């Protein structure tokens, strides 16, 4: 969230404008009846929400939900780790784009401390989570591509899975250009030259990461290639914003407001709306992405509103 826009005096949503835990649980419960089995709490930074562990526990208890995950920047993770674990959190993903303190500071707007995040990752690994721990790294040419091999070295033999993500044109504020994208194929070649890799089969249809194991058995790496190898046709994700908008694509311009249907105490209206939204989706932005900035420009929802 750029400091130039979201300064100290910026008027964020009032607590009453955000969905409360009961409403989030209700949407998740109805979604589970429609076939959803995995839920992820993301952001923004989800650990800024007070008592998030209580929401985790409520979501874990829902019939049909077999996986509740969390994505975090790791800054506040240490103080919440035990509560999240005891609440039943299945999986944990930490965003980490560099092991260089200067590059890390640059990419995080100068707000975060690398040592704090690395310490939290080590503590999470020692604690362990049933579905495992992943590190997400967005690679930008000329910014952090030199960190790829050090990251592999750092997390070998830890049980933590690394995932390298191609730099995407999400929102309108990350100064994306096609020239800044380091293709997954390039990363695969660079890593494989030092640490031989063996491909792994997908765990399920629609898995976004192409998985590889280090041939010496020391770890697993994934590559998310939505720029060079888009996977719109198998996408099975919807995103619910904190104020009640649902989006069927990370690159959407608009969402659908669920609040009118939420005002009805009968679940039928909300279930009908969710079914209609999902059946009517036709998103395929990554498949038709146009690298010409004049033609590809236009308003898109920012990732810090709806998460990754």
UniProtKB/TrEMBL annotation:
Keywords: GTP-binding, Iron, Iron-sulfur, Lyase, Metal-binding, Molybdenum cofactor biosynthesis, Nucleotide-binding, S-adenosyl-L-methionine. Its cofactor is [4Fe-4S] cluster. InterPro entries: Aldolase_TIM (IPR013785), MoaA (IPR013483), MoaA_twitch (IPR010505), MoCo_biosynth_MoaA/MoaC (IPR050105), rSAM (IPR007197), rSAM_sf (IPR058240). Residues 1-198 form the Radical SAM core domain. This is GTP 3',8-cyclase. It comes from Asaia siamensis.
